[in-house]
Amino acid sequence: VSRQLKEEIRRGFARLEDPLAGLLAMLESSSDWKGKGHSLGYCITTELQLWIKAHPAVPQSGTKLKKLQARVLGLLSQCPTNLLDPLISIYQLHTADRNYLLEHVSHLYLQGNYKEAAMLSIKLKLQPDQDVEKMCTPLLLQDKANLVEEYVAEYPELQRKLLQTLDTWCEPSFNIRDVIRPYQGLSKYKPEKFNRKVLSKLIFRLLERFNVDSALCPNVINQRHLRTLNYLFYKRFVEKTMTEENWADHIQSTVGENRWLQGHLVQSLLRHCDTRGAARWAQHCRVPPEMLPQAVAEELQKLHIQDRGEEVTKADNYEASKKKDYYQLPIPRENIHFLQTWEETLQCWEKVLQAGQVVGVDMEWKPSFGMVGKPRVALLQLALKDEVFLLDLPRLLEQAEAEGEKEKLPHFIHMLYSDAAITKLGYGMSGDLSSLAATCSALKDTEKQMQGVVDLLAVDKQVDGLSPEHSHEERGVRQPEKGLSLLVQHVLGKPLDKTEQLSNWEKRPLREEQILYAASDAYCLLEIYERLCKDPEGFGLGSDLTESLVGKQSKKSRAKKQLNKQEAPSPSGQEFQGPRTEPSRPPAPISPQEFSVVCDNMLQGLGRYLRCLGVDVRLLDNEEDHRKAAEIARQEGRVILTSGLPYQTLRSQVGEGRCFSVNCSQKAKEQALQVLKHFNVQVSLGDIFSRCQ
Predict the structure, then answer these.
(1) pLDDT over 90, % of the chain
(2) Among 290, 340, 507, 593, which one is least packed by beta carbons within 10 Å?
(3) Region (Disordered) spans which residues (predicted)?
(4) What residues contact 657, with CB distance under 8 A and at least 6 apart?
């Protein structure tokens, strides 16, 4: 707004005997302010708000103000959002009679103006005196979940009531049509957005956002556990990519003493095992005998306690003979150290924090299987040329807190990651560091301070011939290699044995297989780096390996880098990040035509926006399960774009760094910029609308 117009508006107010009544008369007699954007009516209203602050004697009181309030309430339902706050402030609606305000909102609701009724309630803080189910149901039917979140945001009691209501709707026996029936003629009704699957996602989002105890929603929690149970059976008996011990750990922690889940466990056992096998696992998982079918119960009686450990399923028999097919640690077992005390850890630090050191870094955490909350790192692996250290983070953090020295671990991590003289090797470091920040809040800025980091995930795009199709050999039930395992196979000749990847890493003591897996995951990074340094051109990389991996530097800094010193340039914390303020740059930029993604169903706006920029986009339909994205990503070599809780589920099903979590609170354009920057996609004018719309 021009200064001249502002001055004219203020002079106009000064000439009016009653500016508040004058503004109201103007708004009632025109309609330009009803549209979106900064109309003349909006400019005049906001200027009056500022003018009143400078002239405190102006505001009305008593009967005259009540009459003005009654008139302004009639306008609020037609107001664009940007006018609500100024009008509420000018006419002091917070001081109006509460019952009168509630009655007005109720009138809006009965007229079918559900969105307007909710927004006005939020602005006037009327929620505690309203029925949360009644106010939120039509909004959910109209796919206005964000408004529902805003409605309960400041009221924990309403959050709990809403979650309990939503969970009741997700009960298998509940008829969801009973909720819909009273709103048959609802405008903008989106039935495809109102079903158990969508409601379940919303519940998990609210549980996480408001930090509410998930026990409040037993129906969705049970359904999520059931999906986990089915997934574990698939991994064990169909894919055959989980060891017996690993599988048993997860089955026990998933089912626990929940009778409903125990019933489903028995049914799944009967589908996948013979009667004796089902009885043995029922015994192992402490399923009450009365829940078992007669044949299984009879078999259970025949079993002796010592039988538990003696039988091994046929699926495991191939493992010993197949060890030769996998990457093997080249160091003796006694050189792998599991550290649970600070005395041991300090000795580890002395070896790791030395100038010129090259360190393979990896982290493990218990799979969340889509449950609430971010994963917490349970194990930090640091590999040196002759030994590997496995740090028991939960135990070390607990000890440090008990001794009043919380800063011990953050201090070490910061020293490691910020020292340019120590080369840190990782694979998909950004995901590891975000989990580390969730484990210890003092580490949330580690990524910004990183120096001397080489993220080998960058090799995925650059090493010649590296694709899942090249790795698939006829090995019975073996799945095609992907992610780090595929890189290890291509560079070192054999893939990683990933059967322990989905282990319960929080359970102590760790099994021997877990210890060997964790050590291999970190140590293989050293061997890959060494092999690529010796022959970068043989793998389709530039002669300066560090430049290929982390991006071009200035000539001055590049001249100083010598590979025989094994120095890596400053940081690429996330794979394919956009330009930073530091001199180093990400890997060579890619065009939108070279970038193919699959967008989860909550990111359809982002998908359409990226398609407009020339990106190859597949969109998940509203009714499709999140896991469909992983299936498409594996089949077509796409990157998954998702948000919130599905990220943890999906990232475990594709190669490291092939799944990216987008900020769902941003608009499509901002999300697109975030994605383009992260993967260093450079859009030219010719790319825009280059794909059929």
Answers:
(1) 44
(2) 290
(3) 550-591
(4) 427, 428, 430, 431, 457, 460, 483, 575
Is a pLDDT exceeding 50 seen at residue 426?
Answer: yes
Nearest to 412 by CA among 385, 436, 376: 436
Q: For 360, phi and psi rounded to 5 degrees? A: -85, 125
Q: Do 45 and 33 contact (CB within 8 A), yes or no?
A: yes
Q: How far apart are CA 171 and CA 254, in angstroms?
A: 19
User: What is the end-to-end Cα distance of the chain in Å, rounded?
Assistant: 37
Nearest to 79 by CA among 43, 23, 31: 31
Angle at 204 between CA 202 and CA 208, to 5 degrees: 115
Centre a 10 Å sphere on the Cβ of residue 498 and count the other Cβ atoms it contains.
Answer: 19
State how far the Cα of 334 lies from the Cα of 226, in Å rounded to an integer.
Answer: 40
Q: What is the tens place of the pLDDT at every residue in 580-590?
A: 333 345 556 89
Q: What is the pLDDT of residue 576?
A: 32
Q: Which pTM was predicted?
A: 0.61
- How far, CA to CA in Å, does 671 sit from each of 607, 668, 680? 10, 5, 14
Q: What is the DSSP string of 476-521?
A: TTPPPP-HHHHHHHHHHSS----TTTT--TTSSSPPHHHHHHHHHH
Residues 6+ apart with CB under 8 A from 55: none
**DSSP element (H, E) containing 455:** strand 453-455
* pLDDT at residue 180 in the model: 86
Q: How far apart are CA 377 and CA 56, in angstroms?
A: 56
Euclidean distance between CA atoms 498 and 508, whole angstroms: 20
Q: Is the pLDDT of residue 34 over 70?
A: yes
Residue 662 has which token pair?
A: 């987008």
Q: How far apart are CA 557 and CA 32, in angstroms?
A: 59
**Nearest alpha carbon to residue 431 among 383, 361, 360, 372:** 361
Of 37-46, 342-351, 676-685, give the lowest mean pLDDT range: 37-46
Transcribe 537-568 into DSSP letters: GGGT--SSHHHHHH----HHHHHH--GGGT--
Rounded to an integer, the average pLDDT of 625-645 is 87
* pLDDT bucket at 667, cuts 50 / 70 / 90: confident
Average pLDDT, the chain: 83
Domains of the chain: 220-303 (no CATH), 340-464+482-549 (3.30.420.10), 592-679 (3.40.50)
Query: Quick check: 324 and 307 in contact, CB under 8 A?
Result: no
Element (H, E) at 589: none
In terms of average pLDDT, the best of 151-165, 618-632, 643-657 is 151-165
* DSSP per-residue codes, 621-659: -TTS-THHHHHHHHHHTPEEEE-STHHHHHHTTS-TTSE
| Whole-number pLDDT of residue 140 | 93
Q: In a 3-state reduction of DSSP, which class is residue 619?
A: strand
- How many alpha carbons lie under 13 Å from residue 428 in its C-beta half-sphere? 20
Q: Which residue has the higher pLDDT, 370 or 12?
A: 12
Return the closest-CA partner of residue 44 out of 79, 12, 89: 12
Please report the pLDDT score of residue 299 as a whole number.
Answer: 87
Task: Please choose, from the candidates 428, 445, 444, 338, the residue with its C-alpha nearest in 3D space to the C-alpha of residue 392.
Answer: 338
Are 655 and 496 a contacting pair, CB within 8 Å?
no
Gyration radius from the chain CA atoms: 30
* 19-29 and 40-54 helices, crossing angle to 10°: 170
Separation of alpha carbons 336 and 498, rounded Å: 19
pLDDT tens figures, 123-178: 999 999 999 999 999 999 999 999 999 999 999 999 999 999 999 999 988 988 88
Q: Which two tokens stand for residue 20?
A: 């508040």
